[in-house]
Amino acid sequence: MIIIPKEKPVVENLNSYYLDIRKLIEHYQGEVGSGCVYFKASSAEGVIFFDKDDLLNGFFQDSKGEAEGKTVIDRLVEAAVGHNFAISIYEINAEKVYFWANIPGADKIYEDLSAEFTDLGGLIKKMGSEKLTGFIDVSIGEGNEGGLIFFDNGEIIGNSFSWGKGELNHSKESQEILIQKTKELGGIFNVSRISLDKEGVELQSKDMEQEGTTNVLTMLEALLTLFERVITSHREIESDFNTLLKKKFIEKADEFVFLDPFAAEFSYADQKITFKGNAGDEELVKGLTECVKEIAESLGILAQLKDELGPWSDKYEKDLEKFHVSF
Description:
Layout: E1 9-15, H1 21-31, E2 35-40, E3 44-50, E4 55-62, E5 65-68, H2 70-83, E6 86-91, H3 97-101, E7 107-114, H4 120-129, E8 134-140, E9 145-152, E10 155-161, H5 172-185, E11 187-193, H6 198-210, H7 216-232, H8 241-252, E12 266-269, E13 272-275, H9 281-299, H10 302-308, H11 310-315, H12 317-322
Antiparallel strand pairs: 1-6, 2-3, 2-6, 3-4, 4-5, 7-11, 8-9, 8-11, 9-10, 12-13
């Protein structure tokens, strides 16, 4: 099964007979940075995912079967002329391309769940709480209709439905239609988890460094250290910094699961952060900065904190803009 996000076509329906596929990919690596080349013929189809530095993964299927991996890329390039493919290029956000590139190798964690015993709406919520990175494959009734619901760290990042045109659908209403159809007609659900390969993670880290993005934990560590210093300077504040922080973490744990002390995913001690969870950078930044601001506001020291944060804000200006953070 080939699954790609068809919401941002750069170019469509090129004839592979006239193309040098590798040069085509090289061009769009420079043009869009990251994305995929989709190959479609009457008897076969395939996809090659790329970022600005490398070819990440390939998937090919025809009447003889299907194959996945970097070795498939050569096979797909060679098959392009013989199959006379229609080729389309899709741009994919650099932070998401590794997600899509690893879908072909996803592992099923729940198979053949029946709508008779499993409510799809409840399953969606469960996968969100379990921070699934992967997708739910929904087959409705006799299998003539269906849909896919994609998750990245528990967050729904899109849906695809058999009654659509292959593009990602972000409509909550369409998702509710899918749920209602399974209640009326029955259905089967399969849940698959995507494990980002080590190479993909390393490439993503390299891209972030090249773009000048700072390690988020280093930035947050500096924030908490500075905030601790501000609070310690106020002798009239009866509670110590760690107690204030822990209380706020407990208060915000429903919204930011990684802050739950009982989960033991995040801790701050001796001006060092220890993090063992799966929360993404944006969630980490939002959760910690909200905690800091709310504590400062409750103590009446937010104005002073803003002044003290001047050098820190200047140093991490690009990161703060990226995550829409302001004090």
